[in-house]
Amino acid sequence: MKSDPVLYVFDLDGTLADTAGDLMGTLDHIMLGEGFAPTPLEDSRSLLGAGARALIVRALEAQDKEVSPERLNDMFERFLAHYETRIADESRLFPGVVEALDALEQRGGLFAVCTNKVERPAKLLLEKLGVADRFAFICGQDTFGIAKPDPRPLLKTIEAAGGEVRRAIMIGDSKTDIATARAAEVPVIAVDFGYTDLPVSEYAPDRIISHFSELPDAAAAFFAASEGGKDDVMAG
């Protein structure tokens, strides 16, 4: 008797793809246009991960600056418009992503994305990177009007992708992803090469991987099919 498929729900920026160059380049374009200083690329690990609006706010805070809600909204809208013009100029999938998806798919795995990126650029980026069709559902910050770390985007993504919570696993790179998975009572694997100000081990994910080649075996630790077709979810 074949076990139910596992749904792998991925974060996007810092997990599936290294997008810092295009995001920070867009941020500098907006900040310089507003008369603010550019932001060093090396600061991206602590600034990225919560969406474009939060990125702008964090960059302003780093300069001890503050703008009105109206001005912030205008900067956010112009950020989105400019970002789409260069969305994959420098962005690339992390090494081993395609091979990991192939291996997991051979095991019957299904895939979805749950990101704090706005849905339209999230889909556009995945199309440019040639993997959009691998995902049964792509959830952005505005898809359900709720952002991570609220668990509802993850839970709704699992449902929309045709998965089940008991057979789902989150793969992310940050405190936000781990908190989201914990709140949804879904196991979480963290990559250690993403965008986080502290080492991801500080947030106690269930597993940590340093390359996508490690993902299939790390995920298998949670979903080991027993004889007779029943599954044991193993938290480790």
UniProtKB/TrEMBL annotation:
EC number: 3.1.3.18
Binding residue positions for Mg(2+): D11, D13, D173
Catalytic activity: 2-phosphoglycolate + H2O = glycolate + phosphate
Pathway note: Organic acid metabolism; glycolate biosynthesis; glycolate from 2-phosphoglycolate: step 1/1
Cofactor(s) the protein needs: Mg(2+)
Active site: D11 (nucleophile)
Domain of life: Bacteria
Pfam families: HAD_2
Keyword Chloroplast: no
Family matches, as Gene3D superfamilies: HAD superfamily/HAD-like, Putative phosphatase, domain 2
Annotated InterPro entries: HAD-like_hydrolase_sf, HAD-like_sf, HAD-SF_hydro_IA, HAD_2, HAD_sf, PGP-like_dom2, PGPase_prok
Database matches in SUPFAM superfamilies: HAD-like
Molecular function terms, GO-annotated: hydrolase activity
Signal peptide (residue range): none
Keyword terms: Carbohydrate metabolism, Hydrolase, Magnesium, Metal-binding
PANTHER family: PHOSPHOGLYCOLATE PHOSPHATASE
HAMAP family assigned: GPH_hydrolase_bact
Task of the protein: Specifically catalyzes the dephosphorylation of 2-phosphoglycolate. Is involved in the dissimilation of the intracellular 2-phosphoglycolate formed during the DNA repair of 3'-phosphoglycolate ends, a major class of DNA lesions induced by oxidative stress.
Entry's family note: Belongs to the HAD-like hydrolase superfamily. CbbY/CbbZ/Gph/YieH family.
Descriptive protein name: Phosphoglycolate phosphatase
Native source organism of the sequence: Candidatus Rhodoblastus alkanivorans
